[in-house]
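Supplementary Note 3. Input sequence used for the single-chain structure prediction.
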Amino acid sequence: MHTRRVTITQLLVAREDLMVAELVETWVAGWAVSRRTPPPVEMPWGFYIAVADSPGEVGRHVLPEADELRVRSACASVAVPRTWMKMPVEPEVIEPWLSPGWVVAYEETGHLMVTDLMAAHRVEPEGYTVTVETVGAVVFARVLDAAGEQAAQGQMALLGDAAVVDRVRTEDAHRRRGLGQLVMRTLADHALKEGAGLGVLGATAAGRALYETLGWKKHATMAECVYRP
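The predicted structure, written as discrete structure tokens, is reproduced below.
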């Protein structure tokens, strides 16, 4: 668990390389809890998560650190198509290290983002209400419209003093109304009440802009590749 004596920004300045690896480990643990997969299995190069409910993915390797030896070792361990690999590095860096059959998924490049969670003033736009449900260690926030239909959603896994945010989405018909910010602030408030102070997430390029408006900071590019022999 992380010790909250200083802010995450101060820690990253002091120990950037080590801290990114620790943040990736936090993210992968929370992702598995959020998605209800089996717990991550430790591997020489990082972690492996089996994924059972995705037609495009049978499992994923997550590398907290990305160097040529780790990447080549992880690639060589895979024989099953639709296995993915994710790591904190620019995607063009890993391309020369990949074995035959592996493809860099440039369109899936993400961003590892963190923040010190803070209480926020939440305002529900007229015609919308927020519901919060906790199932085990996962908190679900949903924004409903006047008809009771889901307009936006998000969830997070609580890991002691860290909260890993996941699956934040606003339906197309309800975009540009601040609902994504409402979901994020709702989750942050709930995390604080549960004793978490550190927020971690993996953002898409589109989602990054939303999170930055709320004070989240990018600390690594997350490259992805997939085995498609």
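Residues 16-35 form the longest helix (20 residues). The mean pLDDT is 92.
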